Amino acid sequence: MSKSNVLCCAAGSRPGAGVQKRSAPSHLPNMVALACAAVFALLATSRHAHAQAAPPSVASIAQISLPSQPLEQTLRALSQQFGISIGGESSLLEGRTAPAIKGGLTLQQALSHALEGAELTFVRISASTITVVRAAASEGSTLPMVTVTDSNDPAGLPPVYSGGQVASGGRVGLLGNKDFMETPFNTISYTDTFIQDIQAQEVSRVISRSDPSVFHNGSTGMISDNFSIRGFNVTAGDVALGGLYGVVPYYRVTPEMAERVEVLKGPSALLNGMPPEGSVGGSINLVPKRAGEKPLARLSGTYASDSQFGAHVDLGQRFGENKQLGIRFNGVYRDGDGAVNNQSKTAKLGAIGLDWRSDRVRLSADLYTGEDRVDGLNRGISLVAGLGVPKPPKPETLLAPPWTFTNTKDEAVVLRGEVDLTSNITAHAAWGHSKTDFDALASSTNTVFNAAGSYRNNFAHQRSIYERDSAEVGAKARFRTASVGHEVALTATYYQHDNKFGFLRNMMPKDWVTNIYNPVWGPSVSTSFSNAELPRTGAIRTVSYGIADTLSFAQDRVQLTLGVRRQSVVSDTFDGTSGARTSRYDASATTPAAALLVKATKNLSFYGNYIEGLSQGATAPANAENAGEQFPPYKTKQQEVGLKLDLGGMAGTLSVFQIERPNSYTDPITNVYSFGGEQRNRGMEFSVFGEAAKGLRLLGGVAYTQAKLTKTAGGKNQGKQATSVPRWQAKVGVEWDVPHVQGLTLTGNAIFLSKQYINAENSLSVPGRTVFDLGARYSTSLGRHPLVLRATVQNLTNKAYWAGSLGNGLGAPRTFLLSASVDF
């Protein structure tokens, strides 16, 4: 039984030089402000009264060293170590011996080891009581199987894995939460602890820092957050929140709003439906924060070079006799100059999450309002024909005027409810509405035209407003037919957005000319477009219906998942002047999937899958022979096989995959536009995570991706490597707890990427690179309050490099990050 949550982000604006900014109309900020004020008041008056009654934390990683001994003694030791009552009928426990238990484990992991081979299991009686019962008795019991999670996470999430950086499982679309060893796909879930410790300011850093399957260009201060998975782009607009598309900030997400960041690699049309932007390389889901059993009041101060300061407050409290009502508030403010010359950033977040729970019903509501602004917008370059790739300038160089900017305001409200209809059937429904107001003044012409680095620029002002609605209803049921177990999931989804768009191009009467190695800029272009009314230009509506059944055989050691989803897409285009509809796209597609998982042993699983991705088709352009022809949503097809090994403290995944994605082109001979092209990505991935030894944590891996153009117009460039896809990526993150200095942890991270081609002919490329990060963390106390100090140097050697393609500009320079977090 899974629980999907919902989440949150903040507001404000700062005008760029010479450009007047307007305030986006909104009804949400006032609601959030009132709710936040109520939270502070409630926490201030109630914290002391509830603090003593809060149950102890039962999910933190504990270092356990217990010999093989009578089971009763092992249970008493675990009860004392985790501060929770563990018991059972003496007739069940007498005469039984528990095996030796050693290593950094959660309570759930320790209990599983203790009861191994005893035909016993454990159930949760209350927040602070666990009882041991016969395994057979638990099958018909209405008591839920215990899931020990972080004490500030009552949402039924999979427990944290050894080392605390990732979780032992996560949401797998309509299949719900699954342990990674029982998931027939390649997944990973990053924890809030990991997000805090690496001092991430963008979701892209969370998922790309140590995962070899994820490519991030390394630039900073771009219009939007961007990354690719398995060689295919995934846009920030296709990130889900609690499994729901269309309700996260559209261009960039600040990760303070997430309890976990879950990554599923490869297409996922069956599991998640068609993403609004059509991403097929993988899917990202943010798990919203919820108030835990233990009250939380955490204040963090942050610094990033050159002079960017910030603060983050995280408050959580539960109320009621049985702690039915939970309130969680997150507020973030960062502002100041970054490490790139003449570039400054502002991030604001105000988010509140409410949840209410009873034995059978769970309800939640989330509201957020946020703003992300960059002054001195990072842009890349293009090259005139015949020019080679220039040497990159110093990494601190800004290849655009300091008066360019991007400013994005987001706000959303999300409601969700779940009800246990019976002990084996759960139904849920969710709805969300969001609004994005985007405003950017950026380089539109950015061409280097000689070997000396002379650089021609012009500028464009772009505006867009998105309003999005997203909804989902579904049900899950568990039952058996003879010796076969079934987990059936049904879902229906709806997504709709309206888009208003405006664009002013070439705002200078003639191009500005400067040099990439010593750029000099003139005064700001004059524009009042930030205040202009925008016409409605487009609308998209998607509806899907999905069903999946996971069949379990051989005492659940063999699991076969079969499913299918039917998706319909309606897209309208409108004339910006008259408002009349100028075109309509209406098409549907069916996407099946099958996945097999075999648990060879308790520690080793083999898996394979066939699954499809789905993206909106296109309409033949006006100059094609078949102008106006509409194409159905195109399918991306993946085959994958792999294995997963869990050694208790360390785990690893090895997978081999092939993804085939259609491409569109116009045939040079017949002039017929079609989806006759294809890109085929084949690859192998190896990743590890966990605690290799006491106090030594590893997170990283190696990936090889052959991204080949297998079908092209007239065979041109056929067989070439796709652009901006490195064949090799190797990454490793290391944490070491210094043995003789209690609380001190040294950290390091290394990223290696091979060269990336920047043109389809593969005649131009940017070199590979290796970038190092180095840091330290110190956990101590300020009086009686826990205190964590963090320091990190990113790009330690200040390496200069082109960020994946010339259009992405330069990689980020050496950057110093500092933070201090104290719990009150």
- Inertia-based shape: globular
Using only C-alpha atoms, the radius of gyration works out to 27 Å
Query: Helix fraction?
Result: under 10%
Strand content: over 45%
Which regions contain 5 or more consecutive residues with pLDDT less than 50? 1-59, 137-154
**Could you say which structural class the secondary elements and strand pairing correspond to?**
mainly beta
Distance between the termini: 34 Å
**SS elements, strand count:** 42
> What is the annotated CATH architecture of the domain at 28-35 and 289-520 and 533-823?
Beta Barrel
Please tell me about this protein's structure.
The protein is mainly beta and about 800 residues long. It has a domain at about 30-35 and about 290-520 and about 535-824: TonB-dependent receptor, beta-barrel domain (Maltoporin, Chain A). About 10% of the residues lie in helices and about 50% in strands. It is built from eight helices and 42 strands. The protein has a 22-stranded antiparallel β-barrel. A four-stranded mixed β-sheet has the order 10-15-16-14. Strands 3-7-6 form a three-stranded mixed β-sheet. Helix 2 (about 70-80) runs antiparallel to helix 4 (about 105-115). The longest helix is centred in the first third of the chain and has 24 residues, at about 30-50. It is globular. The two termini are about 35 Å apart. Mean pLDDT is about 85; it is low at about 1-60 and about 135-155.
